[in-house]
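Hi U.,

Before I forget, here's the chain from the pilot set. I'm dumping it here mostly so it's searchable later in email.
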Amino acid sequence: GELSGMVHGEQVFHFHRPLKAWDLITPRGRVVAIEDKSSGQILNFGQRLYCEGDLVVEMESRLFFRGESKGDKPAGAPAEKPARPAPTSTSKVTVPPDLPRRYAEASGDMNPIHVDKTFAQSAGFKDVILHGLGTLALVAKALPKDLAQLQVRFAKPVYPDDPLTTSFWKSGDRIEFETVNAAGEAVLSQGLAVLRAKG
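Structure:
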C-alpha cells in the first residue's frame, strides 16, 4: 500500500504492569487481520512488549489505507448519538506548532504527511497533521497514570496550533473521553481509560 494514504485509525493498549525507566523491552509484532472496507483497507497490527520474559503491554493498532473511493457514501445520515450527561471534567490543550515534526523524529515515523506541508496538502490535508498517538499523548496527560487499558479512535486530523478540548466521563474505574477541535468536531472519539485495580 502507498504509505502516504495510510492513517492510524484506532489504538488499544492493555497495560499488565506499569513500565519503568530503563526497563529492557522486547517487542513482538504480527498482522492480526486485514479488512476490506468500501473506502480502503484496515490493517490490524498487534504488538506485545515483554520485559524479562513477562508480558507487560499488549497493543493493537488499526491502520487505515485510504483507497480510491468506491462511489459515494451510502445514503442516510448516521443516527444521532444519545446526549451524554455533563462531563465529570474537561481539559484544554493547544497543539504546539512544532509537535508533528518533534513527534515524527522521536517516533521514527517520518511519513511526509507529518513533516512536509506541501506533501500533506497534496494528500488532501490543509497542513501537516499530528500523529494520532501524538494527539493521544497530549490528551492522556490529564488521565490518571496507573491505567490497565487505554483505547481510542482517531476520528479526524489534528493540525499544529489546534486548540483541543477533552471531556471526561468518569464512572467507577472507567473514564470515557472525547476530544474536539475548535469547530467542535471530534478528533478523538470512543476514548476509554480503565484504571488499574488497587491491589
